[in-house]
Amino acid sequence: MRRSGVLMPISALPSRYGIGDLGPEAVKFAEFLKSAGQSVWQVLPLTTVDGASGNSPYSPASAFAGNPLLISPEALFSAGLLERSDVDNAPAFPRGRVDYDLVREFSDDVLRRAWANFKAAVRNGGGAMKTDYDLFFSANRYWLEPWSFFAAIKEKQGGKSWVKWPDDLKYRRNGALHAVWERDSDRVEYHRFVQFLFHRQMAELRECLDQFEIELVGDVPIYMTLDSADVWANPQLFELDADMAPTALAGVPPDYFSKTGQLWGNPLYRWSAMEAEGFRWWISRLRHMLAYFDVLRLDHFRGLIGYWAVPAGETTAEKGCWRGVPHERFFERLCWEFPNHPFWAENLGILTNDIETARRGMGLPGMLILQFAFGDPSANPYAPHNHTPDNVVYTGTHDNNTTRGWFEEEAEPKEVSNLILYLGKEVNAGTICDDMTRMAMSSVADTCVIPMQDHLALGAESRTNVPSTPSGNWEWRMTPGQATKVMASRLAALTKLYGRLPPARIKA
Question: What is the pTM for the complete model shown?
Answer without folding.
Answer: 0.96
